[in-house]
Amino acid sequence: MTNVDLAQIQHLLGSLLWAIGRVSGACLLAPVFGDAVMPKRLRLGVMLVLAVVLAPLAPTQIDLASAEGVATMVSQVLIGAAIGFVLKLAFEAVSLGGQLVGQSMSLGFAETVDPRGGGSSPVISQFYLLMVTLLFLVMDGHLRLIALLADSFGTLPPGASAIDANSLHAVVAFGTQLFGGAVRVALPAMTSLLMVNIGFAAISRAAPSMNLFAVGFPITVTLGFVALWLSLRSVPGAFESLQNSAWTLMHELAGG
């Protein structure tokens, strides 16, 4: 008869729970993994598979039923959530940039249902977000995130000091990238459309009787699509710069 080693079972269960906490925190907020377009069962399955695979990397002797065990579980969720939130900010910056472009080309009112958030968002914003999501997958960003979570159990094991005040301040400070990155994404198209609007202003001064709303709206939309098409080549570079800043901060949060 095989003797059941309760200490070993507790050790394995603790490793699995710490991995579930950190992985679930990241998957709840990280793009692609936490998008609402993915079925809930699929997201849960991906989270459990990642937790089982990464569980051997999270050994600990902390008692699960103790106050230290509860605090460790909360800290694992916070670490994963902070990592996923930083990456999400990079995507939201591109989405905000698309919204600025849509407003500049008089398409701010063109909204559709956003399957990611459950509400509605401008069409141009969703187009930009879809494009950078595909870029993220092509550049193996999802594999890089999994590798970061795996390495984090070595650099920041369960039971160690979790997110401190300096790390939280770094995450909040990274929020400025949301606006700076959005301007960087939208600047080429917005600059072109600004020149168009300046031209319309000059025409309105030269011919005040002309109905610029009837004439200018289709011209603005048409030239806006041309400017959008020409400025798309600058989006991957801007997104890569945002990603590099995000990955640097995420490695710091993971103890790297």
Q: What does this protein look like?
A:
The chain is 73% helix and 2% strand. With 256 residues, it is mainly α. The chain has one domain (6-253). It has a two-stranded antiparallel ribbon with strand order 1-2. A hairpin with a 6-residue loop joins strand 1 and strand 2. The longest helix has 38 residues, at 67-104.
Give a brief rundown of this model.
With 256 residues, the chain is mainly alpha-helical. The protein has helices spanning 6-29, 40-54, 67-104, 123-138, 141-155, 165-174, 176-206, 212-231, 235-253, and strands at 111-113, 120-122.
Average pLDDT score: 81
Query: What portion of the residues fall into strands of 2 or more residues?
Result: under 5%
Q: Estimate percent helicity.
A: over 70%
Quaternary status of these chains?
single chain
Rounded to the nearest angstrom, the distance between the terminal CA atoms is 46 Å
Q: How many separate domains make up the residues? A: 1
| Rg value | 24 Å
* Overall SS class: mainly alpha
Tally of DSSP helical segments? 9
Number of strands: 2
Could you spell the SSE succession in H and E letters? Answer: HHHEEHHHHHH
Spell out the key features of this protein:
two-stranded antiparallel ribbon; 256 residues; mainly alpha
Task: Write the topology of this structure.
Layout: H1 6-29, H2 40-54, H3 67-104, E1 111-113, E2 120-122, H4 123-138, H5 141-155, H6 165-174, H7 176-206, H8 212-231, H9 235-253
